[in-house]
Design brief:
The chain is built from 10 helices and 10 strands. By secondary structure, it is α/β, with parallel strands linked by helices. The protein has 2 domains: about 150 residues, Rossmann fold (3-Layer(aba) Sandwich), CATH 3.40.50.1780; about 160 residues, Fe-only Hydrogenase (Larger Subunit), Chain L, domain 3 (3-Layer(aba) Sandwich). Strands 2-1-4-7 form a 4-stranded parallel beta sheet, with helices on both faces. A 4-stranded mixed beta sheet has the order 3-10-9-8, with helices on one face. Helix 10 links the parallel strand 9 and strand 10. Helix 4 crosses helix 6 and helix 4 crosses helix 9. The two termini are about 25 Å apart.
């Protein structure tokens, strides 16, 4: 089995020169693609080089940073967790937030492999899934709406191409939920391997390009929190940082709030985070302890999903409030 190669489709659009092609690159790509151009694993980042390479492909080609939309995911997911906790603890939701349920625990929803697995094997747990799209899809929609309007381009004249480390992203982009008014969030999804082949087929050696080429505005900026999305526990840690700052109004004091249990490559990680102070509007959380789990790999996912489903059937609360799930097993 191999991924469906979309290099020729992307290059056909670029060569025709009629449409604006906007690449987005996931955080981990900048490390992985360097190996395709002679670097040892983990030796070099190729961020600016990728952007420079995209610009060489054609005059209507731009490259933006998925870190931007990963920040959007962090903000949305962190606030959704707070809203679910509020509804569960007080029985009341915030005005104008009708799409969020009071179901706990909340599962992350940025891994399309996990989402599909849940749909097929645990439909009873679908209300537990976060309502957030993945960073790939958020960026795709932002490109076809905000970016198009800002640039004065008809969304139909934009081709959105995502560069992702995951073949499941090819499936995610064709889901029926991932389009509006007949316009898809993402038109093509390439893996790191395909992206490297695309450059090589066009005689572009990233190792020889300048490393300081910036991503294209206005979707080129990020807080830096999203960089850790590329490893298990990264989404959880980033979302917790956001939730903490929203609830307390203060930056995370790392000496006092240890989120390091999110780190590491164990198949299942757990942590408890006490909430000792809050802003007045979040007083319902004061004194509570947020319990989290971070899971990756098929067997581990099944064990956690089975436990949550068992608790649901018994009418008992699950041992966790927030669970990050990634389908890929760690190989480290």
């Amino acid at each position: 089995m191999t991924e469906k190669n979309e290099i020729d489709d992307v290059m056909k659009v670029i060569r025709e020169g009629k449409k604006h092609v906007i690449f987005q690159t996931a955080p981990s790509i900048r490390v992985g693609i360097a190996e395709e151009f002679g670097a040892r694993p983990g030796e070099r980042l190729m961020k600016g080089e990728m952007v420079a390479g995209c610009h060489i492909l054609g005059p209507k080609v731009k490259c933006v940073d998925t870190n931007f939309s990963a920040d959007l995911t962090i903000i949305e997911e962190g606030n959704e967790l707070i809203e679910r906790l509020k509804r569960a603890l007080t029985g009341k939701g915030s005005e104008g937030v009708d799409h969020v349920s009071n179901v706990l625990p909340m599962f992350t929803s940025c891994c399309p492999g996990w989402v599909l697995y849940c749909e097929k094997n645990y439909p009873e747990l679908l209300p537990n899934l976060s309502t957030c799209k993945s960073p790939q899809q958020m960026m795709g929609q932002v490109i076809k709406t905000y970016y198009a309007k800002k640039s004065g381009i008809d969304p139909k004249d934009i081709v959105s191409v995502s560069i992702m480390p995951c073949t499941a992203k090819k499936y995610e982009k064709i889901r029926k939920e991932m389009e509006a008014d007949g316009i898809r969030d993402i038109d093509y999804a390439l893996t790191t391997r395909e992206f490297a082949k695309l450059f090589k087929q066009n005689n572009i050696n990233l190792a020889e390009l300048p490393s300081n080429t910036p991503y294209d505005d206005p979707l080129s900026h990020g807080t830096g929190a999203a960089v850790i999305f590329g490893t298990t526990g990264g989404v959880m840690e980033a979302a917790l940082r956001t939730a903490y700052e929203v609830v307390t109004g203060k930056e995370v004091p790392f000496k006092n709030l240890d989120i390091h249990p999110c780190r590491g490559f164990q198949g299942v990680k757990e942590a408890s985070i006490p909430i000792t102070e809050t802003k007045p509007e979040f007083s319902f959380l004061k004194g509570a302890t947020l319990k989290i789990a971070i899971v990756h790999g098929g067997a581990n996912i099944k064990a956690i999903a089975d436990k949550v489903l068992e608790c649901k059937k018994k009418g008992e609360p699950a041992p966790w409030h927030f669970i990050e799930i990634m389908a890929c097993p760690s190989i480290f």
